[in-house]
Amino acid sequence: MAILKKRKSVLFAGALILLAAIGMIGMLVDNPAGFIRQIALIVLISFILYLVFRRFMGAGPGPARKEQRQFLKAARESRKRNGHKNDSAGRNVVHGSLASLRKPKKKTAAHLTVIEGKKGKKKNRASF
């Protein structure tokens, strides 16, 4: 029964596409200027809807944009911390005069957690 329903929907979609193709060919033969005008109107309306959708839906920072901003911020801070500056050729240049005037900052201790376990106890494994 389910196969029959699937076949009906496929046949219906195929018939609809066939009728649309016949209508487009008939309109192209009868009135080519009207056909081109109609296609241009459809493209224009689609483009306007795309811009409106992108304007309102893309207003807030999405997850990808937020991650990208955080990455760029971290990269800037890393360059600032290391004293590197990109020149126009894309190479990293260290400005010696500025680097020598600055006092080296103390690095903060990494926040690491020690997980204590039974490291001295060996596992009982059967060997073959």
Structure, described:
It is a single chain. The protein is mainly α. The chain has helices at 2-30, 32-57, 63-82, 96-101, and strands at residues 84-86, 92-94. A two-stranded antiparallel sheet has the order 1-2. Strand 1 and strand 2 form a beta hairpin. The longest helix is centred in the first third of the chain and has 29 residues, at 2-30. It is elongated and about 85 Å long. The two termini are 57 Å apart. The model has no long low-confidence stretch (mean pLDDT 78).
CA radius of gyration:
33 Å
Low-confidence stretches: none
Number of strand elements: 2
Q: What is the helical fraction, as a range of percent?
A: 55-70%
As laid out across the biggest beta sheet, the strand order is 1-2
Sheet of most strands: 2 strands, antiparallel
Quote the average pLDDT.
Answer: 78
Distance between the termini: 57 Å
* Global shape: elongated
Structural class: mainly alpha
| Percentage of residues in strands | under 5%
> What's the tally of helices?
4
Q: Tell me the series of helices and strands, N- to C-terminal.
A: HHHEEH
